[in-house]
Amino acid sequence: MFESLQERLGNTFSKLSGQKVLDENNIKDGLREVRLALLEADVNFKVVKQFVDQVRDRALGDEVMKGLDPGQQIIKIVNEELIELLGGEQQGLDLKAQPLKVMMVGLQGSGKTTSSGKLAMYLRKQHGKKPYLVPADVYRPAAIDQLNTLAKQLDVPVYPSTTDMNPVDICKDALVKAEELGCDLVLFDTAGRLHVDEVLMEELATIKRECQPQEILFVADAMTGQDAVTVAESFNEKLEISGVVLTKMDGDARGGAALSIKTVTGKSVKFVGVGEKLSELELFHPDRIASRILGMGDMMTLIEKAQSEIDEDEAKAMAEKMAKAEFDFEDFLGHMRKLKKLGSMEGLLKMIPGMGNIMKQMGNATLPEDEMKRTEAIISSMTMQERRQPKLINASRKERIAKGSGVKVADVNVLIKNFKQMSKVMQSMMGGGKKKKGKFGLPKMPGLGGGMPNMDALGGMPGMGGMPGMPGMPGMGMEEEGGKRSLSKKTLKARNKKKLNKKKNKKKKKKR
């Protein structure tokens, strides 16, 4: 999502950064590129015109500080206008209501049923709500079965709907049942159609009138682009929706719906689905999305993901192990698997400011997931005793581990060697040993590249301080070529330059 837009905007800002002064001519050229980038991202053309006009007015106004880099000035303005375009401040649900009644509406196939399950899990985990799921789509039997299956996975009660029941009666009776069960969150999964029709709208309007839901969330597939905005407008006219849930935000949609929906409907996006798992539902933060679009990362979301998955007590216990040099391959494997729960490594790395550009420069370097899989395969091929006591791994054991993981003995050697180096560094960093003079960063883990710095300095991610917590950048130092590990071209060039400088210095000394 937004990758194409991010690339186009990045190129535009780079051109503006080369200008000495921000004047009407270069603003005009820059905004032409911004307009094309937004239209290519499938943003509503009226929204694009309004956005570009606002940026132009501000860029030419008195608020621009003279002496600043033109690129920085325009980025600041575009960032602020993007946040407004996306909805301004983050909009949540009315959690004070007892019980909280949420009506999920939208077209068939938009993801209403799955989003109902995701929202139930999110509100139970984050706000301690006791959800009650109500299958009110009697026209699609699979919808009732699907919500029943999700209810079992979540271990929450569900209304026993059948296809011969009236949807309005289902919703009214469900409120009584929910009160009897002591549930303070009722989620109505209503029917959808392949297109908007009067019969559907009348049914939904009746459910709204009879059940008085505090929240009516329109669920839209982000992959449908401008169609989602048009349909949202129709639903808003008939039902007065309170917000939007965008599904499939992890796909390759261009992002037009997210950027247009607030301006067209006046309603904010409240949640986004970022994967197929029930846990993959996130609050929509306009400022964070704007930051991602402009290639500035999203550290707050990364920190929140880490806090939700990594237990603080486990993190403390691990820190103590590191300080005492007791951190072993078993601990590292467990921590690496926890990281995988946060999402794809590629997606996580892009949340770190500047990392998106670095990953582009890496070109065809091995993907983080592939690197981690190989490292995991090597460790998994060790016995439990070997993982906990790496000193036991001799030549014959290395051969067995290499065969078991489908790698070469050299790869196993590199893993063990760098793991030992990392353990020493971690011990020094955490006060468990003598600190070496001078600065040092984390050594490269095979398959994981150079290590990340202590993440505590970036907001205190529990369990992510100073690696192993966040894997390093793959392919930055070593790359695979013809089955052999070789230095990257950049590193090789730098080393050759050093050698040439040494030779020149020797010749100069001989002449003297």
| Biggest sheet descriptor | 7 strands, mixed
Number of helices in the DSSP assignment:
21
Q: Which structural class do you get from the secondary structure elements?
A: alpha/beta
Q: Shape from CA axes?
A: flat
Beta percentage is 5-15%
* Uncertain segments: 433-488
Number of strands: 9
Radius of gyration: 28 Å
Read across the widest sheet, the strand sequence of neighbours is: 2-3-1-4-5-6-7
Separation, N- and C-terminal Cα atoms: 62 Å
State the helicity in percent bands: 40-55%
Mean pLDDT: 75
SSE sequence, one letter per element = HHHHEHEHHEHEHEHEEHHHHHHHHHHEEH
How would you characterize this protein structure?
The chain is an alpha/beta fold. 54% of the residues lie in helices and 9% in strands. It contains 21 helices and nine strands. It has helices spanning 3-17, 24-40, 45-59, 70-85, 112-127, 141-154, 167-181, 198-211, 226-239, 256-265, 286-293, 299-309, 312-323, 329-341, 345-350, 355-361, 368-380, 384-388, 395-405, 409-429, 489-511, and strands at 100-105, 131-135, 185-189, 215-221, 243-247, 269-273, 281-283, 478-481, 484-487. Strands 2-3-1-4-5-6-7 form a seven-stranded mixed beta sheet, with helices on both faces. It has a two-stranded antiparallel ribbon with strand order 8-9. Helix 1 packs antiparallel against helix 2 (24-40) and helix 4 crosses helix 11 (286-293).
List the helices and strands and how they pair.
Layout: H1 3-17, H2 24-40, H3 45-59, H4 70-85, E1 100-105, H5 112-127, E2 131-135, H6 141-154, H7 167-181, E3 185-189, H8 198-211, E4 215-221, H9 226-239, E5 243-247, H10 256-265, E6 269-273, E7 281-283, H11 286-293, H12 299-309, H13 312-323, H14 329-341, H15 345-350, H16 355-361, H17 368-380, H18 384-388, H19 395-405, H20 409-429, E8 478-481, E9 484-487, H21 489-511
Parallel strand pairs: 1-3, 1-4, 2-3, 4-5, 5-6
Antiparallel strand pairs: 6-7, 8-9
